[in-house]
Amino acid sequence: MASSSDPWMRELNDASKLVDEVSAMVSQRSSLPLSGSQMQRHMSTARRKMTILRTKLETLQSLLSKFPGKQRITEREMNRRQDMLNKLSVKAGEVAPTLNMSMSADRDSFFGLDRNRGDIMKIANDLDNHDLVGFQRQIIKGM
After folding, report:
1. Choice between 119 and 126, residue whose per-residue pLDDT is larger
2. Fewer CB under 10 Å: which end of the chain, C or N?
């Protein structure tokens, strides 16, 4: 078994904590105001943590495939670590779409696209660049 001083295991534990933090942040989103800087900061922090998590997972996979020769581990331990990493990657993969959907919904709501996206697209398709800028200004004034 790996000791707690093993850098790979510490990195895996850090990644596991990050998955839990991002998941909690996405869950807390419903308790925050729908608009405003507090929501933006909260979701920005969640996105930043998700980016850090992805980097950690890639690093862990890379380290596992090139495990240092001075640290002898059995094939069984190698398989156990691969399983732990796979489970953590799946868990992170389940959180990512939820985070992306909430970001998309926030953006659409902020720009008013959640209500009449189809109508706006129909109008914008027939406009040249000059008219499109005027149409954008009109939409912004109407918000």
Report:
1. 126
2. C
